[in-house]
Amino acid sequence: MKIMLDAGHGYCTPEKRSPDGMREYEFNRSAASLAKELLENYQNVTVYLAHSDERDVPLTERTDLANRLNVDCYVSIHANAYGTGAWNSAGGIETYIHPSRPQEALKLAQKIQRNLIHLTGLRDRGIKTADFHVLRETKMTAVLVECGFMTNKEEAALLRTPVYRKRCAQAIAKAIAEQYGLKRKSDGPKQYKVQVTFEERQEAEKLEGNLRNDGYKAVIIE
Ligand SMILES: [Zn+2]
Q1: Which Gene Ontology MF annotations are present (predicted)?
Q2: Distance 211 CA to ligand 1 centre (A)
Q3: How far is the CA of 13 from the centre of ligand 1 (A)?
Q4: pLDDT in tens, 131-153
């Protein structure tokens, strides 16, 4: 299946930053690349990115690309903001679908929201609807997730940390895997190891030599 991840905005998008200067894009892109890595551990998955580190890719360009590639699912990743740039107490996580309430998108949004709340412990603001461009103009299942508030001091601190970004990525990847019944790539054929202990180094070296002659990989650990 084809999945498109969309880190909202770009590095230089004005205003999209926390009162202490973290750019929203820093969080968005980091969560998106971590989610891409995680999703690539599943079979038959191709992950595309809608954004670019070079510029704020216009929304039309993002949704045109998704439609042209005919991806199965589109997830737009954001951090929220409330008010006019000062710290305030608005907080929590919410996931958006289009007001026409497409059933597949609703199911995916519920899974993402549930996993995010479970993994981050933040306040559950629920599933919401909005006529956002990326939800309206995409022809496939599309959701937009707001992973906490940049204008909330505690949440802004979380949004900066690698561990919080990873948790958000895990929640998103897990939800997509659940929704589409994705199977993990196998870890390759099984391997068996034997460990032998000697009192004398010489004896260990002798066995190591014999094993190497027979074509096995052997290592001596003191
Ligand atoms: Zn945003």
Answers
A1: N-acetylmuramoyl-L-alanine amidase activity
A2: 59
A3: 10
A4: 999 999 999 999 999 999 999 99
